[in-house]
TrEMBL record:
Belongs to the actin family. PANTHER family: ACTIN. This is Os08g0369300 protein. It holds the Pfam family Actin. SMART domains: ACTIN. InterPro entries: Actin (IPR004000), ATPase_NBD (IPR043129). It comes from the Eukaryota.
Amino acid sequence: MLFKVSCFIVLNCFRYSLLSHFIELKRENMYSYDYKREYQLGLETTILVKSYTLPDGRVIKVGTERFQAPEALFTPELIDVEGDGMADMAFRCIQEMDIDNRMTLYQHIVLSGGSTMYPGLPSRLEKEMLDRYLDVVLKGNKDGLKKLRLRIEDPPRRKHMVYLGGAVLAGIMKDSPEFWITRQEYQEEGLACLRKCGQA
């Protein structure tokens, strides 16, 4: 039994170590600007290639992977995922809202989460949102873009914004037991305890 526990601990430490190195590789090397231009540059030159030292001392070179991995956020088909990319989802979501609210929503698009930290992602999202608005709403009439005040907010702490928001909400609701599910309630009722929150 002790051997199984030791193996479990070692494997989890190994996974954590690999994950932390991947996160470092992602943070230091990946970006999301103009995919077509970067792809062409990657085919024609080696200017995009960077070296990264693995924990065991080996050095790997990353080139087109630096922008191809983040591209999946905009083009999920690259990783065999059906569905809209980030720009399409945001655009469709706003367009499905009441027409009186759309302009306000276009002015307050807030990025959050670690994958929004890629250099170039906010400007890339803005460009793609403008392109969709021009094509779908304005039907190519560029004069109409003057009225659209698109604003992508990319706060520096956006990597942890979801956690921070949850922490604020938890602080506000701490004295309201109807917003909490106790461990005992979950163990006794399972998912049925979500009815308490109006979710089941």
